[in-house]
Fold these 2 entries.
Entry 1:
Amino acid sequence: MKNEVLGVKAPKIECTDKKCPFHGDISVKNEIYRGKIVKKDINRTATIEWSRSVYVPKYERYELKRSRMRVHNPGCLNAKIGQQVLAAKTRPLSKMKHHVIIQLLGDVDQLSLVKEAAERLEKEKMHARKHKESAETKDYKNVHAVKQ
Ligand SMILES: [Zn+2]
């Protein structure tokens, strides 16, 4: 059994799950995803989901997209729907699963959500301003060209 995986301490409960990063025989790679559990299935499988914003140049705005991933939910962690978790890459565990949950981050933290939203908004504003400025200068030049 491993006491620590990627800086995450092993949970107090022990399990007999072979596909557990702490008590089983799989090793994880340093490629971590953060998401919310949206679905739980038998066979210790769960689906995590997170949102990301993608810039759409035509409309100079961001589109909110969702990504999903099937992950292994080890018996000792047993994440529940609605919980934020960290999942790390590992060897293929089944046809759809190549990642395993290594840490529970608890229920959705309102404060961090607000912080994230504020940061995203700030970024959007910066980006929009940049685009707007370049568009405006172009217009300005055109107006002058017509006048002359
Ligand atoms: Zn375990």
Entry 2:
Amino acid sequence: MAQSSHPKLPSVLPSIPAIQDVETTPEQVNAGLARVTNPTETPIYICAMQSCYRLFPSKERLMQHRKRDHDSEDEEDIITWNE
Ligand SMILES: [Zn+2]
């Protein structure tokens, strides 16, 4: 069904230096490596705690990581377009 509102991510995300892609061939690019997706097809949950910025496919996975790696069950500092 149609989304009730447009997906949203923060307009500013942390940046890192870009690295040149030396592996992708012109054939792969022309075959269509990239496509438009949406929150239902591609859930995105980013741990924004302590400049972590690891990406997870579900909130459950993010919270498992957070408990293990940050020793926290805090549900703040999550960047997502799914909620
Ligand atoms: Zn984290």
